[in-house]
Task: inverse folding
């Protein structure tokens, strides 16, 4: 009996240790970056630190945004990083955000562009990312001005939009200010790229698949884990590696 009990305990422990959660997204540094190396993004590091305490491994994969969202909706991925509720309405969202998306417009210094309202975008080519959810006013503008937008996709769309901007294929593009800042800082190639105005700031999340049996449990684990990371100082240490300030 003792042997059977020991084997059961070992089997349960082994199963728990081997449990895995698959998180997907396109590259969106500093939130989530490359799958290789030690700097995979602060959200990936947060998730790994939180779930490790529950003997759950985080498997992070980079995919184009539309594919990442579809995989999460269908349950072939367990969660998508950096989502707005409008990106995947059926998903299970934690209460704790993993940061904020400051939606801004970027152009070149020599274009002398400024942004205050969506009307400022008329008559110019605007770069966007296929499948991204934007603010309500931006989504309304995009729906009415499809002919003036250039939509890109891939696992690193911010780089594509930056190249399109430098090559005058677009006049400006809309993107998270933190993502652009992280991408261009210290790179002389992008010294002519400037933030010309922002639209709206909104919280973003790790959204869990509606097909995932333990989605609500994982959301709760992440909620409680982020609070614990913040209280222990571990969150600050992670954020410091990416020169990011805590959003609370």
Result:
């Amino acid at each position: 009996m003792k042997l059977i009990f020991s084997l059961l305990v070992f089997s349960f422990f082994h199963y728990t240790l081997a449990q895995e959660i698959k998180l997907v997204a396109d590259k969106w540094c500093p939130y989530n970056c490359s799958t290789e190396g030690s700097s995979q993004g602060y959200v990936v590091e947060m998730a790994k630190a939180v779930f490790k305490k529950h003997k759950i491994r985080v498997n992070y994969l980079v995919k184009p945004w539309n594919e990442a969202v579809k995989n999460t909706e269908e349950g072939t991925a367990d969660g998508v990083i950096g989502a707005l509720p409008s990106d995947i309405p059926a998903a299970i969202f934690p209460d704790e955000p993993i940061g904020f998306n400051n939606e801004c417009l970027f152009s070149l210094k020599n274009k002398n562009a400024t942004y205050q309202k969506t009307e400022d975008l008329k008559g110019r080519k605007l770069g966007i990312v296929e499948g991204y959810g934007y603010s309500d006013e931006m989504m309304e503008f995009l729906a009415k001005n499809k002919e003036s937008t250039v939509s890109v996709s891939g696992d690193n769309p911010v780089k594509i939009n930056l190249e399109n901007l430098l090559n005058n294929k677009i006049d400006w593009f809309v993107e998270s200010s933190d993502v652009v800042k992280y991408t261009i800082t210290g790179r002389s190639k992008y010294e002519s790229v400037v933030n010309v105005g922002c639209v709206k700031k909104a919280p973003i999340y790790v959204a869990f698949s509606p097909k995932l049996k333990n989605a609500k449990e994982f959301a709760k684990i992440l909620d409680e884990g982020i609070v614990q990371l913040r209280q222990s100082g571990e969150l600050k240490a992670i954020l410091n590696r990416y020169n990011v300030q805590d959003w609370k």
